[in-house]
């Protein structure tokens, strides 16, 4: 278990909600090699209304409803500590609307790195 007060590198599985479930109208995102999908997120028991974090997802299958993925989760400076471990679920949101669930398999704290060169460990 890792105390989430900064940034975390995550590996796991992303499942996108269908439009009928309130997910993205255009379906799963279609990232390419030039950019990652970025959004907001929270770790329950937090909610979209209290202390969301920023998330960047990469290495997932473009357009797939379910896929292995990697992510970088960054807490806001005013976030209270919370715990995240394998098995945790991160709710991916666009604004406050949930659009997917990222189930965590691996968690690794990330040292402070400049945003312009942020990357997951190899």
What are the key terms here?
mainly beta; two-stranded antiparallel ribbon; disordered C terminus; 122 residues
What does this 3D model show about the protein?
- The protein has 122 residues and is mainly β.
- It has no helices and 8 strands.
- A 6-stranded antiparallel barrel has the order 2-5-4-3-7-8. The chain has a two-stranded antiparallel ribbon with strand order 1-6.
- The radius of gyration is 13 Å and the shape is globular.
- The two termini are 21 Å apart.
- Residues 113-120 have low confidence and may be disordered.
Radius of gyration: 13 Å
What is the count of helical runs? 0
- Helix/strand/pairing category: mainly beta
Q: How can the largest sheet be summarized?
A: 6 strands, antiparallel, barrel
Strand content: over 45%
Report, as a whole number of angstroms, the end-to-end distance. Answer: 21 Å
Overall strand count:
8
Query: What are the low-pLDDT stretches, counting only 5+ consecutive residues below 50?
Result: 113-120
Shape: globular
Assembly state of the chains shown: single chain
Strand line-up of the largest beta sheet: 2-5-4-3-7-8
Relative helix content: under 10%
On the 0 to 100 scale, the average pLDDT is 82
Task: Outline the fold blueprint.
Elements: E1 2-4, E2 7-16, E3 37-42, E4 53-58, E5 66-74, E6 82-84, E7 89-94, E8 97-110
Antiparallel strand pairs: 1-6, 2-5, 2-8, 3-4, 3-7, 4-5, 7-8
Briefly summarize what is shown.
With 122 residues, this protein is an all-beta fold. The chain has no helices and eight strands.
């Amino acid at each position: 278990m890792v105390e989430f007060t900064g940034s975390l590198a995550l590996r796991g599985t992303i499942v996108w909600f269908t439009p009928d479930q309130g997910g993205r109208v255009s379906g799963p995102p279609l990232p390419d090699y030039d950019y990652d999908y970025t959004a907001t997120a929270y770790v329950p028991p937090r909610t979209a209304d209290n202390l969301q974090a920023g998330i960047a997802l990469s290495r997932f299958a473009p357009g797939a409803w379910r896929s292995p993925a990697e992510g970088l989760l960054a807490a806001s400076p005013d976030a209270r500590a919370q715990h995240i471990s394998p098995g945790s679920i991160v709710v991916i949101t666009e604004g406050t609307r949930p659009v997917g669930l990222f189930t965590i398999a691996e968690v690794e704290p990330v040292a402070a790195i400049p945003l312009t060169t942020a990357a997951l460990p190899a």
